[in-house]
Write a structure and sequence with these properties.
GO terms for molecular function: structural constituent of ribosome. It is a single chain. By secondary structure, the chain is α+β, with helices and mostly antiparallel strands. Helix content is 17%, strand content 26%. The chain has 3 helices and 7 strands. Strands 1, 2, 3, 4, 5, 6 and 7 form a 7-stranded antiparallel beta sheet that branches. The longest helix is centred in the N-terminal third of the chain and has 11 residues. The termini are far apart.
Length: 127
């Protein structure tokens, strides 16, 4: 009698990552940004993942993010629906998980937003 063990998808994904070389060629490197569903679908387990819109950092809004509670994907992870809890400037804004809006409209990244400081402008010299 032959017994087949079925591994949870999370374990399989971790096993596959161990097989890849540390320095991946550019074509195989994961993009670190994209629409919300592309960012989430790259992770084996989305529950508890923190993501933010890149425009928040551009607007100097720091420590803001969505903590993902659930996601459903379609079209190979390019579309779908995601639910989470919003943290705005470190404060919990939604008491319970809610549908995340703008998933396709904006560029998203993993992690929390951090205020981007503008490069110092050169001072004009008097001629």
């Amino acid at each position: 009698m032959h017994v087949t063990l079925i591994r949870p998808s999370q374990e399989v994904a971790k096993s596959l990552l161990k097989l890849l070389p540390k320095d991946l060629p550019p074509a195989l490197r994961p993009k670190n940004s994209g629409n919300l569903y592309e960012v989430l679908s790259r992770t084996p387990n989305v529950e508890g993942l923190e993501v933010h819109q890149t425009r928040w950092s551009d607007k100097r809004v720091s420590n803001s993010y969505w903590k993902i509670t659930d996601a459903r994907f379609k079209c190979e992870g390019k579309h779908g629906k995601a639910w989470g809890i919003l943290y705005w400037r470190g404060k919990k804004m939604s008491p319970q998980p809610e549908l995340i809006r703008g998933g396709l409209k904006y560029v998203w990244k993993e992690g929390r937003s951090s205020a981007v400081l503008a490069a110092p402008q050169p001072k004009p010299t008097a001629a």
